[in-house]
Design a protein that fits this description.
Number of strands: 11
Oligomer: single chain
Largest sheet: 9 strands, mixed
Strand content: 15-25%
CATH superfamily: Alpha/Beta hydrolase fold, catalytic domain
Distance between the termini: 22 Å
Shape: globular
Helix content: 25-40%
CATH architecture: 3-Layer(aba) Sandwich
CATH topology: Rossmann fold
Number of helices: 8
Order of helices and strands: EEEEEHEHEHHEEHEHEHH
Number of domains: 1
Strand order of the largest sheet: 1-2-3-5-4-6-7-10-11
Length: about 325
């Protein structure tokens, strides 16, 4: 456990345009650590605390449009793991153990009791590990496409190559907004501009210049994560999954493929349907108290692609389990 008096809040500023009339604009906090800092976004609200954890490659800002939905009954916060966005240091990675102790330090600094962890994708792995390492700090876990069986051999890889997405044009890379439109047109989700700016570099002319996070930083975190210890989770859990449709692609650009690429997409879609069912069955068998909700025809960034359905599922669950 961390002594809260040994951790200080470095800064307090609005992340978007200032002013109380901007409903949903979070306060950006930086919690100091021994060799860096951790970014926390705080949308306020009263009631049980929801702490949102992003998936790999995203930051707390990916929840800019989703987390504020809950502030009428809950306090909503999101955390950016060190090495990503404005959580530092950015030149080297942070292993899972460091991320877990960072979360505990944030809870201590902000004087938070038990929280409901909400993890997307790899953020679900982090949430599971934190719930096991710090069981007295967690009231429940919510997985947004984040409850995955990562045991070796549990999810055999597909036997078809992944079709390459269309190359970005000069227009696609002209600005953060243009890049946002490219991602939406190609992959489906409309990423919040705040997350794009936190994860993506643009040159002095405002043109796309690649990702901000080095591959080496990503490798440190990914390499430190073992299969999630679901059997040791003792709190209630909700897993919200996208339910793939055999007759419909989740990725928009697959609809524009032809020839061998189209055949590969068909094979991959069939694999996605099979593996989704296998994955869900495995997680059900391991988690003691699990509720599962499937949202048809969604996608991996489920809270951006189907925010209303994801919110309804979360609220039903929270009505029963939130402290």
């Amino acid at each position: 456990m961390f002594r809260s008096e040994s951790i200080v809040v470095l800064a307090l500023a609005t992340a978007c345009s200032a002013g109380p009339d901007r409903v949903g604009s979070p306060i950006q906090r930086f919690v100091a650590r021994a060799d860096g800092r951790v970014e926390v976004l705080d949308w306020g609200g009263r009631g049980a605390v929801l702490l949102f954890l992003p998936g790999l490659g995203n930051t707390a800002h990916v929840y800019e449009e989703f987390a504020p939905r809950f502030r009428n009954r809950y306090r909503a916060l999101a955390l950016t793991p060190r090495g990503f966005g404005e959580s530092t240091p950015n030149d080297r990675g942070a292993a899972l153990d460091t991320v877990l102790t960072d979360i505990a330090a944030v809870l201590d600094t902000l004087r938070l009791g038990k929280v409901v962890l909400v993890g997307h994708s790899l953020g679900g792995d982090v949430a599971t590990s934190f719930a096991v390492a710090f069981p007295n700090r967690v009231a429940a876990v919510i997985y947004l496409e984040g409850a995955n069986d990562r045991r070796p051999g549990a999810q055999p890889p597909p036997n078809a190559p992944w079709p390459a997405p269309p190359a970005m044009t000069r227009e696609d890379s002209a600005s953060a907004s243009a890049y946002q439109r490219y991602v939406e047109r190609t992959f489906g989700p409309r990423l919040p501009l705040q997350d794009i700016r936190a994860t993506t570099a643009f040159d002095s002319a405002g043109r796309f210049a690649g990702g901000r996070t080095p591959d080496s930083v990503v490798a440190v975190l990914v390499g430190s994560i073992a299969p999630p210890p679901y059997r040791q989770v003792t709190v209630p859990a909700l897993a919200i999954y996208s339910e793939p449709d055999p007759s419909r692609y989740d990725l928009p650009y697959w609809n524009r493929l032809s020839g061998a690429d189209a055949r590969a997409a068909d094979s991959l879609q069939a694999w996605l349907v099979r593996s989704a069912k296998t994955n869900e069955d495995s997680v059900r068998a391991m988690l003691r108290s699990l509720e599962v909700v499937r949202i048809p025809r969604s996608g991996h960034l489920i809270f951006l692609l189907s925010p209303d359905a994801a919110e309804r599922a979360m609220r039903r669950f929270l009505d029963r389990v939130a402290p």
